[in-house]
Fold this sequence. Notes:
The structure holds two protein chains of two kinds.
Chain A: E1 4-6, E2 13-18, E3 24-29, E4 35-38, E5 44-47, E6 55-60, E7 66-71, E8 75-80, E9 86-91, E10 96-101, E11 107-112, E12 121-126, E13 138-143, E14 149-154, E15 160-165, E16 170-174, E17 180-183, E18 194-199, E19 205-210, E20 214-219, E21 225-230, E22 235-240, E23 246-251, H1 263-266, E24 270-274, E25 280-284, E26 291-296, E27 302-307, E28 312-316
Antiparallel strand pairs in A: 1-28, 2-3, 3-4, 4-5, 6-7, 7-8, 8-9, 10-11, 11-12, 12-13, 14-15, 15-16, 16-17, 18-19, 19-20, 20-21, 22-23, 23-24, 24-25, 26-27, 27-28
Chain B: H1 2-17, H2 42-56, E1 61-65, H3 75-87, E2 92-98, E3 112-116, H4 119-129, E4 141-144, H5 147-153, E5 184-189, E6 192-199, E7 204-212, E8 219-221, E9 228-231, E10 235-240, E11 246-252, E12 258-261, E13 267-274, E14 284-291, E15 297-304, H6 305-308, E16 325-326, E17 334-339, E18 342-347, E19 352-353, E20 359-360, E21 366-369, E22 375-380, E23 390-396, E24 401-408, E25 411-418, E26 424-432, E27 439-447, E28 455-459, E29 467-472, E30 478-483, E31 490-498, E32 503-510, E33 517-520, E34 526-531, E35 538-543, E36 548-554, E37 560-563, E38 569-574, E39 583-588, E40 593-598, E41 602-607, H7 617-625, H8 627-673, H9 675-681
Antiparallel strand pairs in B: 1-3, 1-4, 2-3, 5-6, 5-41, 6-7, 8-9, 9-10, 10-11, 12-13, 13-14, 14-15, 16-17, 17-18, 18-19, 18-20, 21-22, 22-23, 23-24, 25-26, 26-27, 27-28, 29-30, 30-31, 31-32, 33-34, 34-35, 35-36, 37-38, 38-39, 39-40
Amino acid sequence: MRPILMKGHERPLTFLKYNRDGDLLFSCAKDHNPTVWFADNGERLGTYRGHNGAVWCCDVSRDSGRLITGSADQTAKLWNVQTGQQLFTFNFDSPARSVDFSVGDKLAVITTDPFMELPSAIHVKRIANDPTEQTGDSVVLIKGPQGRINRAIWGPLNRTIISAGEDAVIRIWDSETGKLIKESDKESGHKKTVTSLAKSADGSHFLTGSLDKSARLWDTRTLTLIKTYVTERPVNAVAMSPLLDHVVLGGGQDASAVTTTDHRAGKFEAKFYDKILQEEIGGVKGHFGPINALAFNPDGKSFSSGGEDGYVRLHHFDPDYFNIKI
Amino acid sequence: MADVMVMKEIEDTALRLGLDLSTLDLDSIRLPPGENCGIVSDDDEVYQEDNLEFESGFGNIIVVDSLPVVPKEKFEKLEGVVRKIYSQIGVIKEDGLWMPVDPETDKTLGYCFIEYNTPQEAELAKEKTHGYKLDRAHIFCVSMFDDFDRFMKVPNEWALPETKPYAPGENLQHWLTDAKARDQFVIRAGSDTEVLWNDARHLKPDPVYKRAFWTESFVQWSPLGTYLATVHRQGAAVWGGSSSFNRLMRYAHPQVKLIDFSPGEKYLVTYSSNEPSNPRDANRVVINIFDVRTGKVMRDFKGSADDFAVGGAGGVTGVSWPVFKWSGGRDDKYFARMGKNVLSVYETETFSLVDKKSLKVENIMDFCWSPTDPIIALFVPEMGGGNQPARVSLIQVPSKEELRQKNLFSVSDCKIYWQSNGDYLAVNVERYTKTKKSTYTGFELFRIKERDIPIEVLELENKNDKIIAFAWEPKGHRFVVIHGDNPKPDVSIYSMRTGQNSRVSKLTTLKGKQANALFWSPAGRYIVLAGLKGFNGQLEFYNVDELETMATAEHFMATDIEWDPTGRYVATAVTSVHEMENGFNIWSFNGKHLYRILKDHFFQFLWRPRPPSFLSPEKEEEIAKNLKKYSKKYEAEDQDVSLLLSEQERDKRRMLKEDWDKWIHEWKRIHEEESLHRQKLRDGEASDEEEEYEAKDIEVEEVIDVSEEVLHLEYGQE
C-alpha cells in the first residue's frame, strides 16, 4: 500500500514509538517538539511543547497516560499524553539520550551523555502515581562506561538494565545495585558503535543495530548471541515484527558522507530480514536520507520509519506481506 | 636519566656498606683479568649494535681502487679530482670522501671510500666509473663496500659445485584437473588475498587458499595461469602448486613497481623507478628480465626515465607499461621496445638485439606485435607539416622485411588492434577535416593471412562519430564498435566474412545504448555491453550470432568486468575507487545473476587464465556438433546437485527453525514462572499475554437537550 507521508517535523527524526494499543504513534526529532499521530491514518493529534533542544527518545506508559521524553536540553520530561501538559521535569547536567519505562511504569531508566568531563550515566527514577508527588531523586545511578550510551532498556522483571552505545559493548546491569552483571565479548559483539536497540514484544530477546553494518539478536537473560544480520550499510535503526519472524533494519550512509549523485548510492531502504534464517526478504524504499528510527505497530500490520529527511513514513502492509514464503 | 639511576643505586649501596664514596678512587679498582663478574661491558653492546648495522648501513658506500699513490703535497689535488668525478653522479655526503694515508710513508694508499646519500647513487657511480681511465696507469676499479666481505670469502681453490638431488616439483596445472571443470579467481580485499573456485552450481565461491598480507601492492596471474605473482618491497615472487599455494621462486628487485610476464610465461619483466636525490634529474629506471623457473636475471636495463618514455600518444606522461612488448605465441622468442627513432628487437636466445642493431624508424609513435606471429605493426605520424605522410607498416621479424605499408594523410591519431588469431588487423585512424578544426574516424582493415595482405577501408555512416570502444571477436571474424557523440551512443557490429564476397559489412547497429565499454566472451559469440563510470553499471548481454539481447541487468557502480577464461561466466566488480557497494557479482554468460559477494576495500578481481586448449579445431567442431550427447551427463549431474542443494537447504532451515522453537519454548517456560511477579509489578493487573483485549461495541447515549414543542398535525395529507 502507498505509504502515508507524515510531515510534521522540521529536522531529522530521532525516535518513533507506538503505544501499546497501537493507535497512537509518538515521534521525536531534532526540532524541539515531540509529536503524536493517529497510527492508522497519520493524522497529527498534537505536539508536546516545552523542550529546548533536540529530543532523542521517548516512551509511553502502558495505559497511554504518560509520556516521558529525553532531550539534548539536559532534561527529561513527563507529559500528560491526552492534554499535552508538562507534569514534571528531570534536570541533568548533560543531554538525556534514552528513556524507558519499566514493567508496571513505576520506574524509568534515563541515560545521559558524557559532557564537559562528566562521564555517561544511567539514572533510574521512581515515577510517582500522582504527578504532584513526583521527585527528581535517582533510585540508582550507574556511572557509565566509556563513550555515549545510545540506548538503555529494562530487562525481565525490571531486575536488569541492558545498555549499549559508542564503545560497541552491550552490558547488563543489576537494576537495584547498579553492578555490572554481563558484558558482550569482543568475539561475538559489535565492532563499532551500537546505534539502536529494540526489545521483542515478549522481552525474550533484543536486537541491536550498529555502524559495523550488522544487526545482532541477543538473549535478554544470558546475553548470548543468537543471530546476526549482515547488511551493506551502517545500521541506525532496528525493529522487530511482533507478528511474524521478521526484523527490519534501517540506516544508510552517514549523513555527512551522502553524495549527491544517486539516491541508490546511499542505501536508504528499510531492509526486511527473516529473523530465524537471517536471509534478506525485501526492502522498502522512499526516504531520501538515512533512516534514523523504525517502529512496528504492536499488531504487526503496519510499521513506520523516520528519516534524516524529516519525514515519517507510515506503511500499512499489503495482504501479500503476510504470505511471504522463503 | 639512566646515569642518574645508576649513580643513585651506587650511592645507596655505598651507604649500606658504610663506605664514603668521596674517599674512594674508582679508577683504582680493577677486575681480575678475564673475569667480568657477570657484568656485560657497554663496549660489547656497542660492538654488537655496530655489527647489526653492518648488514644494512653501508649500501651507499663505494670503494674506489687503483688511484694514484701520491705524497702529502699532492693529496688535496687528488682529492679534488676524485670529488669532481664522483659528485657529478650523485650527492656525496658531507665528510663522505675518505682517502686513507699510510702513516709511515705519509703517502696515500691508492684507494678511497665515498659515501653517497642513497644506495642507488652508489650503485650508479659504481656502474659508471668502473673502468674509468684516469690516465694510462690508473684504471679505476670500483666496488660496493658491502660486496667486500663477499669477495673476501671467495675460496682460492675451485670446488666442484654440489649437484642437488632432483626434487620432483608439484603439478602446477593441477587446478585444470578439477572434476567439475570449475575456474579459479583471486580477490584482494582489505589486507587479505584469497583464491577461490567459482562454484556456480552451488551459487557460491569455494575457498582454495587465503592469506593476509600476501602482497604489498597487487597480485597478477601469469598469462597461462600457472603462477600467481605477488609484489613486495624486496622484489616479486611467484606462487603455485597442486594443493595450495607455495612460493616457487623469488625475484629480487628492490622497490619493484610493475611486473609483466612473457606470453609463454618463461620470463618475468620487473620495473622500478627511483626518485633521484637531485630533483632536477629524471627518475632512475631499472628493468630486470628474469627467467621464471630458475629465477636468474637474464638481462637488465638501467637508465633514466626519459630513455624509457618514448613514443606513445603523450610521450611526456612517463613510462608506458609494458616497456617491452613480447612477440606472440608461446615460445617467447622476441621482445621489442621503442626508442627515439628506433625500434629495438631482442631475441631471448642470447638476450641481445636481433642482428646486433636496432631498427631505424624515424619518429616511431606506437607498435604492436601480432598475437600469434613474429610480425610487428608500427605507426609513424605525419612529418614535415604534412609533406611526408603518416604510415602504418607491418614488419616481419627476424628478417626485418616490410610486409605491407599504408600511407595515410592528415592523420591526427592512430590506434592498432590485432585480432586474437593474428588474422586481421584494424587500424583506427583519426583524420583532420579540411579545416583542421575537427576530426573524423575511419578504419583500415588488413587481412594478414591472405595473399599480399589486402587492405579495406571502412568508414562509419556518420563520419563525425567518436569511437568510444572497439573490440575484435576472439578467434572470430567480427568486431564491435561503440560510436557516437551523444550520451547514448550506438553500437555497430561488423563482420569480415559475409556471403560469397569476403568483404567487410555491417551486421547491425544498436541505437542509443547506455554503454561505454564492451567485453567479448573469450569464446566469441557473446558480448557484454557495459555502461561503466557515468552510466552506473548498466549491463547488456548480447548474442552476436542471433543478433539479439539476451538480458539486461545492472550492477550499480560497477567498475570492472571480466569474463572467465572459458566464457561461461562474467564477473562484475565494484573496487575501492568507490566507497560504497564494494564487492563482486557473478553472472552466467546469458546474464543470469548467480551470486553476489560484498567485501569492503575491494581491490582486485582476477580470473585465473587457462592455457589454450590442446584440441584441434576439427575436434572442437565435432564436440560442438555432438554437444547434446555430452551434455546429458552434465545436465544429470547439475540436477543431482540442485536436488541435493535444496535438500541441504531445507534441512538447514528446519534445523534453524527447530533451534529457534526450542529456545522460544524454554524462554516461555521461564516467562510463565515469572508471570506472578510481573502481575505484582503491575499492581495486580493481569499480565500481558493473557490479557488479549477484545473490541466491544459500546453504545453510549447522551441526552443533549430536551425540548417540548406542539406540532400542528395536519390530517388528510396523504
